[in-house]
Design goal:
three-stranded antiparallel sheet; mainly beta; four-stranded antiparallel sheet; 0% helix
Length: 117
């Protein structure tokens, strides 16, 4: 639509617990082996290509086409430092879940309080 920016693809949620960040991307219909994920300078980049639904159907035969196809790149800024060596990614039922363990210096530290007597 004129005046509206294209929606970023894939749509993502970013959450965390005490040990890791989790980026969950809604990416149905992708070939997970063709996805390229990189982590650099507290940024996660997800790149790939979303294929057309039916390659044998000519574009002029569609009455409506709302599912975009083509190459995409999505970069998500991570709120904390992560351990680049321990990143894992899983794809199931159209969801890409990237687990990014927190770097040791980014984890909260418990500090004991000494009581003088």
């Amino acid at each position: 639509l004129p005046g509206h920016a294209a929606r970023a693809y894939p749509l993502v949620n970013v959450s965390e617990d005490a040990n890791a960040l989790y980026v969950t991307a809604l990416a149905p219909g992708l070939d997970p082996t063709a996805l390229q994920l990189t982590v650099q300078d507290n940024r996660l980049t997800i790149a790939g290509e979303k294929q057309r639904v039916a390659a044998e159907i000519q574009p002029e035969a569609f009455h409506r086409s709302e599912r975009a196809a083509g190459k995409f790149v999505r970069t998500v800024t991570l709120p904390i430092e992560v351990d680049h060596e321990q990143v894992q990614a899983d794809y199931k039922n159209g969801l890409l879940v990237v687990t990014l363990p927190k770097a040791e210096k980014a984890k909260p530290k418990q500090i004991a309080v000494s009581v003088e007597g």
